[in-house]
Amino acid sequence: MPLLLTGRTFRRDLEAHGCLAVHAPLEGGAETRLLRRLRGAGYRTRLWSARGLGDPEVFLTQKHGIRPPHLGHQSVGRGAAVGEVQEVVPQLGDLLDGDAQVALWLLEGQVLSQSELRSLCDLCSREPRLRIIVEMGGARSLRWQPMSGLLAS
């Protein structure tokens, strides 16, 4: 990776395609460097792991219920038949307030299924301010491609 990465080409590709698949060096550093460049360009950014994401669209944009771990305790007579359900706010709710562009970087995106990746692309097309970068694995140097191109192959 070059010593100085301006991120201009990355930002142009991100704005053109909306959802990118990234292969980053395993030693790290590329994601924070590019996120810093995006923040400098006016984006509001968030970095998350894709593990445990569930339904991406509901998790990111809608109020939804979660079931906390039971930790060996029984919940007889409390809550629903499926156990206690807690309501949580959408994870991108505070970022989508206002007019600023939003960039979401998902780590460990290789655990997501094809349909989940496709729903992330659809979410980017429905919400014009949202840009999603999914880290799909490691590589010796930083490279990226449109998510639609990855799903087509």
Helices and strands, in order, run as: HEHEHEEEHEEH
List the strand order in the largest sheet.
2-5-6-1-7
> Care to count the β-strands?
7
| Structural class assignment | alpha/beta
Compute the separation of the termini in Å: 26 Å
Please count the helical segments.
5
CATH level-two architecture: 3-Layer(aba) Sandwich
Whole-number mean pLDDT = 84
Shape: globular
Number of domains: 1
Rg on CA atoms, Å: 17 Å
CATH class: Alpha Beta
Share of residues in helices: 25-40%
Q: Report the sheet-strand fraction.
A: 15-25%
- Major sheet attributes: 5 strands, mixed
**CATH topology call:** Rossmann fold
Point out poorly predicted stretches: none
Protein name: NAD(P)H-quinone oxidoreductase subunit N
Catalytic activity: a plastoquinone + NADH + (n+1) H(+)(in) = a plastoquinol + NAD(+) + n H(+)(out); a plastoquinone + NADPH + (n+1) H(+)(in) = a plastoquinol + NADP(+) + n H(+)(out)
EC number: 7.1.1.-
Keywords: Membrane, NAD, NADP, Plastoquinone, Quinone, Thylakoid, Translocase, Transport
